[in-house]
Amino acid sequence: MPAPLIVSDPNVMMGKPVVAGTRITVELICEELAAGTPAAELIAGHPLLTPEAVTAATEYVRTSDHKEPKP
């Protein structure tokens, strides 16, 4: 089973869900997408962010009851 792309750790970003191995929050990704930032531009601005991680973040929000803005 592949490692999850979205993780939560109380010691990282106060436990907010983040892209694994980074401090890039699902909240940031979704806020940027909701504001109209293209995924490619978001990825270009964050070298550790991948298209798969952006998809995982939006899927995380779509399938959860969390309060992150939906893109």
What Rg is obtained from the alpha carbons, in whole angstroms?
11 Å
Helix content range:
25-40%
Biggest sheet descriptor: 2 strands, antiparallel
Quote the beta fraction.
Answer: 5-15%
Judged by helices, strands and strand pairing, the structural class is mainly alpha
Query: In the residues, how many domains can be counted?
Result: 1
Note the total helix count.
3
| Global geometry | globular
Q: Reading side by side through the largest sheet, how are the strands ordered?
A: 1-2
* Straight-line N-to-C gap: 28 Å
Uncertain parts:
none
What is the helix/strand order? EEHHH
Mean pLDDT: 90
Q: Count of DSSP E strands?
A: 2
Summary of the model, kept short:
With 71 residues, the chain is mainly alpha-helical. It is 39% helix and 6% strand. The protein is built from three helices and two strands, in the order ββααα.
Question: Can you offer a commentary on this structure?
Answer:
The protein has a two-stranded antiparallel ribbon with strand order 1-2. The chain has three helices and two strands. It has helices at 26-34, 39-45, 51-62; strands at residues 6-7, 18-19. The longest helix has 12 residues, at 51-62. The model has no long low-confidence stretch (mean pLDDT 90). It has one domain. With 71 residues, it is mostly helical.
Outline the fold blueprint.
Layout: E1 6-7, E2 18-19, H1 26-34, H2 39-45, H3 51-62
Antiparallel strand pairs: 1-2
Index terms:
71 residues; mainly alpha; two-stranded antiparallel sheet
